[in-house]
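How it folds:
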Amino acid sequence: MLRTGLPVDRAFDDVAAVFSDEAGPAEDDIPVLVERFRGTGEVQGHLAALVDAANEKQSGEPEFRARLIARADDALGSSARSDGMTRLSHLRRLALAAQDLLELLLLPDDPETAPCPV
């Protein structure tokens, strides 16, 4: 659980649901997943929680972190209709931004404890 209240496992599960197979999520699942990433008036979405956590933790290189946060903000600010994107491509854009922030936040603070690259 991030300090912002986001269950990390749920965010990873939703990212995996978007990219689980070649067909992608079912058409009926797309609006539900978009809402989870974007949030509602009452509930903060995955992306907003991840942006808050990235700003709070200050992990990673500042320029890289700023670029990922800007990409997440851009994905949150766009919509499938206004940008001419399909609903699935819009969902994938939201999920990619979330995945990048999750990976940034879960990197170990001490580079010496990081796993060896394969």
